């Protein structure tokens, strides 16, 4: 039986490998998810069988485990069934918090059971505990930020406190091993737990809302590391493999996301934008803007042959994807070609905009990646920018002193006409003036994405 | 520390190789799949549930607080797994649904 358990673990691990590999390729992603889930089911069953086989079965423990698993399965299914597509990122963050929570509880229990672990086990135990706790509280803060319940908070004391905590985390095990600390393992563990929780909170607090995807990816990776550390402690290869895959993949994914936004991981964590290297900082040119109306936009659309829709965060927040699809269908019925142009970091997460539009039944074929159309933007008669700002700001290409200089943008300014739908003159996430608004061919339509799309569609129907 | 290294040499090799494999596996992921991939990886990190089950077995039957904490750990671990995979599936469903209707 033991051999069977080990073989199951091996198969489960292969499931993770193949699953992850497939998840990274568009056509096989769905299969990949199933394979990974199958591997997971096998690992869990094998663990239960392996743990209970050949020993006197404790009915109490067995029923508690089954209770926990059943409840976890049902709650997880229910939560994912009910979730709206726009709430997806915070849900991922929430589930990640759960994983961190497990790592945290494991650390506490371990210290409760084993009062005198070896120094190596102690280091593993405490690292797992601190990382788990930080990942747990950090993910909860990220979850609250994405749901709009928590504002950013930047302060100097936060920076110093987090540095101090890091020193404490490193110093405690050393002091303990060399007997400089009282020997109550459980108490020290609980103190470290609380400090870990605090660290997680102050780690995420200063980071801006739009950078949350990067943070979630990073925290996800941390949970993986905590899992792997616990795996070494329990000598469980499946935990090490699963944890490390996630840890490594998470770090890479984090870096890829930063790359798409042209920001260094360091800048994201520090909660700031690239410092403007000297130069004329603060000199803000007066930009003269031109506004437009629903009717005018509708007329322009009616005469256009090729329309580009550039959706952004604002569309996601207003949940206007279905209205957007309506406008698209109406235009298509008038033989107008409509493309959606998606910036890699549009929406709240990479790929998030694609999912949102897919939900509204927008055809996969007309979703264009930024890179594939950017050189051909002049072929569009009109570009409708809905709730996007920084990703169409030409300052990223022209103004060397702009904080977003170097970020890849959609060259909407090359279209014959550009209409930007936004709620007010508020700056985008990066807090910079959008030079596009001053362009000759650019007009602004101040309205909520939902109202604007309804208005334009209604006017267009009348034409 | 050195003893630990010698005792667990194989484990450490395994650890290092898995790190590289993890990076290689997803090296060429397109931006569109970042979110589902993150979600799927998140679900896989729920394998920590295995640890929660193992530790449940070592808790004393009469240590009710310990048992309660262990059960919570099992619950949270499974929540991470089930929620993670279901959400990933739901996201991917929307992608593939469109492709078929070509």
Distance between the termini of chain B: 60 Å
Number of helices of chain B: 5
How many H/I helices of chain A? Answer: 17
Q: What is the subunit organization of this protein?
A: heterodimer
Largest sheet of chain B: none
Largest interface: A-B, 117 and 86 residues
Label the structural class of chain B: mainly alpha
Topology order of chain B in helix (H) and strand (E) letters: HHHHH
Biggest β-sheet: strands ordered side by side in the sheet of chain A: 3-2-1-4-5-6
Helix content of chain A: 55-70%
Helix content of chain B: over 70%
Residue fraction in strands of chain A: 5-15%
- The ordered H/E elements of chain A are HHHHHHHHHHHEHHEHEHEHEEH
Could you tell me the radius of gyration of chain A in angstroms? 26 Å
Mean model confidence by pLDDT of chain A: 84
Classification by helices and strands of chain A: alpha/beta
On the 0-100 scale, what is the average pLDDT of chain B? 84
Strand content of chain B: under 5%
> What is the overall shape of chain A?
elongated
Task: Give an overview of the whole structure.
The complex is a heterodimer of chains A (463) and B (102). Chain A is 60% helix and 7% strand. With 463 residues, chain A is an alpha/beta fold. Mean pLDDT of chain A is 84; it is low at 273-283. Chain A is elongated. Chain A has a 6-stranded parallel sheet with strand order 3-2-1-4-5-6. Chain A has 3 domains: 1-82; 87-272, no CATH class; 294-462, TPP-binding domain (Rossmann fold), CATH 3.40.50. In chain A, helix 5 packs antiparallel against helix 8 (212-233). In chain A, strand 4, helix 16 and strand 5 (417-422) form a beta-alpha-beta unit. Chain A has helices at residues 2-23, 29-52, 59-82, 88-113, 119-146, 156-177, 185-204, 212-233, 237-260, 265-270, 294-303, 313-318, 321-333, 352-359, 370-373, 395-398, 449-462, and strands at residues 306-311, 337-342, 367-369, 382-386, 417-422, 442-446. Chain B has 102 residues and is an all-alpha fold. Chain B has a domain at 40-102. Chain B is 80% helix and 0% strand. Chain B has helices spanning 2-7, 9-25, 34-44, 48-58, 64-100. The radius of gyration of chain B is 19 Å and the shape is flat. The model of chain B is unreliable at 98-102 (pLDDT under 50). Classes of the chains: A alpha/beta (463), B mainly alpha (102). The interface between A and B is large, with 117 and 86 residues.
């Amino acid at each position: 039986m033991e051999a069977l358990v080990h073989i199951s673990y091996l198969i489960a691990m292969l499931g993770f490998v193949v699953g992850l590999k497939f998840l990274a390729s568009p056509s096989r992603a769905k299969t990949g998810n199933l394979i990974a889930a199958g591997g997971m089911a096998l690992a869990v069953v094998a663990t239960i069988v392996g743990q209970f086989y050949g020993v006197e079965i404790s009915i109490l423990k067995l029923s508690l485990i089954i209770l926990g698993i059943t409840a976890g399965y049902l709650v997880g299914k229910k939560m994912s069934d009910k979730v709206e597509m726009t709430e997806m990122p915070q849900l991922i963050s929430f589930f990640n918090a759960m994983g961190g929570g497990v790592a945290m509880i494991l650390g506490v229990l371990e210290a409760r059971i084993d009062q005198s672990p070896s120094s190596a086990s102690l280091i593993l135990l405490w690292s797992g505990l601190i990382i788990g706790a930080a990942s747990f509280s950090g993910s909860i803060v990220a979850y609250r930020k994405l749901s709009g319940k928590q504002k950013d908070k930047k302060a100097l004391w936060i920076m110093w406190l987090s540095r101090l905590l890091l020193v404490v985390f490193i110093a405690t095990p050393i002091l303990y091993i060399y007997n400089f600390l009282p020997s109550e393992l459980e108490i020290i563990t609980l103190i470290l737990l609380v400090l870990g929780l605090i660290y997680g909170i102050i780690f995420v607090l200063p980071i801006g809302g739009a950078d949350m995807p990067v943070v979630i990816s990073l925290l996800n990776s941390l949970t993986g590391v905590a899992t792997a550390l616990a795996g070494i402690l329990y000598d469980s290869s499946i935990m090490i493999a699963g944890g490390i895959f996630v840890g490594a993949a998470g770090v890479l994914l984090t870096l890829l996301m930063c790359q798409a936004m042209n920001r260094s991981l360091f800048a994201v964590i520090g909660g700031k934008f690239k410092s403007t290297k000297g130069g004329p900082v603060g000199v803000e040119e007066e930009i003269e803007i031109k506004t437009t109306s629903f009717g005018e936009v509708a007329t322009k659309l009616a005469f256009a042959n090729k329309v580009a829709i550039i959706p952004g965060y604002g569309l996601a927040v207003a949940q206007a994807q279905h209205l957007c699809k309506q406008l698209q269908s109406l235009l298509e019925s008038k033989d107008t070609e409509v493309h959606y142009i998606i910036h890699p970091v549009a929406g709240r997460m990479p790929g998030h905009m694609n999912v949102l539009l897919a939900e509204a039944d927008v055809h996969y074929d007309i979703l264009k990646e930024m890179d594939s159309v950017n050189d051909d933007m002049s072929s569009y008669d009109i570009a409708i920018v809905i709730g996007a700002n920084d990703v169409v700001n030409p300052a990223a290409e022209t103004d060397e002193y702009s904080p977003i200089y170097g970020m890849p943008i959609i060259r909407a300014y090359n279209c014959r006409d550009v209409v930007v739908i936004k709620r007010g003159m508020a700056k985008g996430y990066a807090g910079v003036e959008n030079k596009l608004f001053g362009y000759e061919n650019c007009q602004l339509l101040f309205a909520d994405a939902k109202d604007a799309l309804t208005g334009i569609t209604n006017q267009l129907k009348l034409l | 520390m050195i003893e630990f290294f010698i005792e667990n040499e194989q484990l450490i090799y395994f650890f290092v190789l898995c790190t590289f494999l993890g990076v290689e596996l997803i090296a060429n992921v397109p931006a569109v799949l970042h979110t589902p991939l993150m979600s799927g990886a998140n679900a896989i990190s729920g394998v920590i549930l295995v640890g929660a089950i193992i530790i449940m077995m070592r808790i004393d039957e009469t240590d009710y607080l310990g048992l309660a904490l262990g059960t919570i750990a099992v619950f949270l671990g499974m929540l991470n797994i089930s929620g993670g995979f279901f959400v990933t599936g739901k996201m991917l469903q929307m992608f593939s649904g469109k492709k078929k209707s070509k």
